Amino acid sequence: MATQHSRSAARLMMAPAVILLLGWMLVPLTMTLFFSFKKYLPLRGDSMANGLEWVGFDNYVRFVSSSSFWPSIQATLIIVGGVLAITIVLGVLLAILLDQPMWGQGIVRILVIAPFFVMPTVSALVWKNMFMDPVNGLLAHLWRAFGAEPVQWLSQASLPSLIMIVSWQWLPFATLILLTAIQSLDSEQLEAAEMDGAPVLKRFWFIVLPHLSRAITIVILIQTIFLLALFAEIFVTTGGAFGTKTLSYLIFQRVLESQNVGLGSAGGVYAIILANIVAIFLMRIVGKNLDA
Amino acid sequence: MGRIVLDQVSKSFGEVEVIPPLDLTIEDGEFTVFVGPSGCGKSTLLRLIAGLEDSSGGHIRIDGADATNVPPAKRGLAMVFQSYALYPHMSVRKNIAFPLRMAKLDQVEIDRRVDGAAAVLNLGDYLDRRPGQLSGGQRQRVAIGRAIVREPAAFLFDEPLSNLDAALRVGMRLEISELHKRLQTTMVYVTHDQVEAMTMADKIVVLHAGRVEQVGSPLELYRAPRNTFVAGFIGSPKMNLLEGPEAAKHNARTIGTRPEHIAISETDGEWAGTVGVSEHLGSDTFFHVKCDAFPEPLTVRASGEMTVGYGAKVFLTPDPAHLHRFDEQGLRLE
Q1: Do the domain assignments include residue A284?
Q2: Given phi > 0 = left and psi -120 to 50 = alpha, else beta, which region is B8?
Q3: Domain holding A200: CATH number?
Q4: Which of A152, A215, B37, B309 gives a 20 to 30 Å CA spacing to B176?
Q5: How big is the A-B interface in CB pairs under 8 Å?
Q6: Which of B87, B103, B132 sits opposite A197 (nearest CB)?
Q7: Could you tell me what percentage of chain B is helix, strand and coil, using 3-state DSSP and rounding each to the nearest 5?
Q8: What ipTM, to 2 d.p.?
Q9: Is B172 within 8 Å of B200 (Cβ atoms)?
Q10: In Å, how far is B134's CA from the nearest CA of chain A?
C-alpha cells in the first residue's frame, strides 16, 4: 500500500466486505436494542404493525431482578471456567505426549482431532444416551461392575456432566493449537536448559510453559468467545434444568418459551456487555503476551 | 580442571556409523578446535562430550572420572549453541542467572557472578532487555555469559559465529580468544571455517567422515599436513594438489604447493601457463593460472602491485622447500 492511488484502490475494494459485515452486525444489534425498550409479547397481540409500547428500562430491571438471573451468570462462569481449565491442562499434557515420536503418530493425531468434527448436538446426544444414561449408559454399567449405584449424571451432577461433554469437544482444538506451538520450540533451548542443570519438570516450567503462554492465551480467547454462547449441549441434555441455565439459555427461554421478546432482548444486551467485559480483559492479557 | 579424554568413543545412528571408534585427548586449558566439512561428525562429537548424545561405545573421561553415563548437567561443562539458544521470555540477567538458579545458589552470589560476567562481556547496559531486542553479536555474548557464570571445567562451542556477519565474526573471534587467555579454561570449539580454526586454536583436530585426519597446532598442520585431505582443507586459498608426470618427477603420486609458495614471472619459470581470473585483495592478488602440465588451474599468490591481464602468458616456479609430496593413499611422504 505504498502510494496514494493504491491506498484508495484498496479501500474501494475492501468496502463491500466491510459494509456487508457492518450491516450483518449493526442490523441485529439495533433491532435488539430497539426491542429491549419495548413491551413485545406476540401471544398477547403485540405486533410491529400495531406499534409497540415504549417501556423504558423496565425490561432491563425485570431481567436482572428475576430469580434466575444471578444463578445463570454463575452457571455460565462455572461452565466456561471449568471447560477452560480442563482443556488447557489436558491439552498441554496431550500436546506434549503427541509431540513424542511414536508408532502410528499420524493416525493417533487424527483420532485426537476427531471429536472436534462431531456436531455439538450429536456429541451431546451421544454422551447423554450412551455414556450418561443411568440405566443403559456405559458409565452406569461401569459403576455397577464395581457394585456401586449408578450416578444420575445429568440431574445429580449436571454442571460437571456438561463441563465434561463440552471439554471433550474442545480438547482437540486446544491440543492442536498447543501441539503446533510445542513443535515450534527450538530444541537447542531445551538442550541448553539441560546443560544448565534443569531437570525435566523445571525445563517444562521455565522453558516449555512460557513458550506456550502465547498459544494458551489464544486458546483461552477463542474458547471463551464460543463457550459464552454455549447452547446446543444444554438444550439437548438438561434443557436448562438442574442449575444448567446459562445466560444465553436464559435469553432463549425468555424469548421463545415465555414469548417475551422485549425481556429477552434486554438479556441479550446484558450478554453483549458481559462478553465485552471478558473481551477487554482478555485482549489486555493477550495484547501483553502477543507483544513479546 | 578440564582434561577431556575420549577412549575408543563411537557413535552410530541406527545402522549408520557416524563416528568410528576414536581416541582423543584435550589437555587442560587448551583451546581445541574441531574442524571439518559439514557432515564430518564434528558437532556430533561435541554433543557426545556434552552428553546431549549417548555414545554407542567407548569411554569419555573428564578430569580422570568416567563421564560416559553422567547426565549433561553433572559433567561440569557449559555449551554455547549455534542458535545461541537464549530463553526468549527471560531478560538477559535472568538468562545468565538461569544455570545458577538451577544450581540453587543464593541471590547475592548469583548477582555477583552475573554482574561479573556482564562486566567481562560488556553487557552491563543490556541486562534488563530481552534477547529479542539484542543484535546478533550481543546475543552471542549473552550465550557466552550464561556459559561463563557456571565456572565450568570446559566450554563447548558449537559453530557459535556462523550466524554473524563477516565483520562481527572477526571481532567475536578475537573476543573469544581473549576470553580464553583470561580464563585459561579448556575450550572445545567446533567450526567448518578453517580460518577460525587457524586463528584461534592451540590444537586443531581435523575431522573427515567421523575420522580424525590429523591433530596438531595450526602451524604443524599448515607446514606438514599428514595427507591430501588436510593439505587441501587447511590454508586459504587451498593448496594446489597436482598429479601426473610433474608429480612423478618428485617420486610422488601427488604433489602439493600452496599459492604463497609459487613464484610467478612473465619471463621464465618451470611451468608455462595462461592467466585466467585474477582476484585483487589490495595487499595480495590471486591469479588462477591454467598450466599446460595440469588439467586443473593453479592458484598463485602475488604481490598486490603485480598486474597481469586475462590471457597473459606467465611462468610458475614452485618453492622446492615448501613442496609437499603424497603417495598413492594420499599420505605424506617425507
Answers
A1: no
A2: left
A3: 1.10.3720.10
A4: B37
A5: 61
A6: B103
A7: 30, 35, 35
A8: 0.81
A9: no
A10: 13
Binned at pLDDT 50, 70 and 90, residue A91 comes out as very high
Residues in a beta bridge with B303 = B284
Pairwise CB contact (< 8 Å): B73 & A191:
no
Task: Kindly report, as residue ranges, where domains of CATH 2.40.50.140 are found in chain B.
Answer: 238-333
Please judge whether B102 and A202 are an interchain contact, meaning their C-beta atoms are less than 8 angstroms apart.
Answer: yes
B19 phi and psi angles, rounded to 5 deg? -130, 110
Q: What are phi and psi of B58, to 5 degrees?
A: 85, -175
Whether A32 maps to a domain, the answer reads no
Looking from the CA of A244 toward its CB, the CA atoms found within 13 Å total 26
| pTM for the model | 0.79
Over residues B179-191, the pLDDT tens digits come to 899 889 999 999 9
d(CA B5, CA B199): 24
Joined together, the cell numbers standing for residue B162 give: 556462523
Helix (H, G, I), strand (E, B) or coil at B331: strand
By C-alpha distance, which of B299, B291, B294, B195 is closest to B240?
B299
Site of grid cell 599446460: B292
- Contact of A200 with chain B, judged by CB distance below 8 Å, is answered with no
Instruction: Name which of A40-54, A169-183, B223-237, B283-297 the model is least confident about.
Output: A40-54
Under 8 Å between Cβ of B200 and B176: yes
CATH topology of domain B238-333: OB fold (Dihydrolipoamide Acetyltransferase, E2P) (2.40.50)
Q: Do A188 and B82 touch (CB under 8 A)?
A: yes
Are B52 and A292 inside 8 Å of each other by CB? Answer: no
Specify whether the backbone of B256 is left (phi greater than 0), alpha (psi in -120 to 50) or beta.
beta
Q: Is residue A130 part of a domain?
A: yes
What Rg, from alpha-carbon coordinates, does chain B have? 23
Question: Is it the case that residue B171 has pLDDT exceeding 70?
Answer: yes
Residue in chain B lying closest to A207 (CA)? B87
Rounded Cα gap, residues B217 and B206, in angstroms: 11
- Residue A104 lies in domain: 67-259
User: Does residue B273 contact residue B286 with C-beta atoms inside 8 Å?
Assistant: no
| Residue B4: alpha-carbon gap to chain centroid | 18
Query: Whose CA is closest to B142, among B173, B118, B119?
Result: B118
Chain B residues closer than 8 Å to A191 by CB: 52, 72, 79, 81, 85
What is the residue type of B302?
A
Residue A175 DSSP one-character state: H
**Which tens digit of pLDDT belongs to each residue from B266-303?**
888 888 899 999 999 888 999 999 988 888 899 999 98
Could you please report the per-residue DSSP string of B109-139?
A: HHHHHHHHHHHHTT-GGGTTS-GGGS-HHHH
Using an 8 Å Cβ cutoff, are A259 and A88 in contact? Answer: no
Number of domains in chain A: 1
Q: What residues in A contact B150, CB-CB < 8 Å? A: 196
Q: How far apart are CA A18 and CA A127, in angstroms?
A: 41
Strand partners, B34: B190, B205
Beta strands at B203-208 and B31-35: parallel, antiparallel or unpaired: parallel
Residue B241 CB neighbour total at 10 angstroms: 20
Nearest chain A residue to B83 by CA distance is A188
Angle at B203 between CA B152 and CA B150, to 5 degrees: 10
Whose CA is closest to A170, among A88, A278, A108? Answer: A88
- Provide, as residue numbers in chain A, all residues whose Cβ is less than 8 Å from the Cβ of B73: 194-199
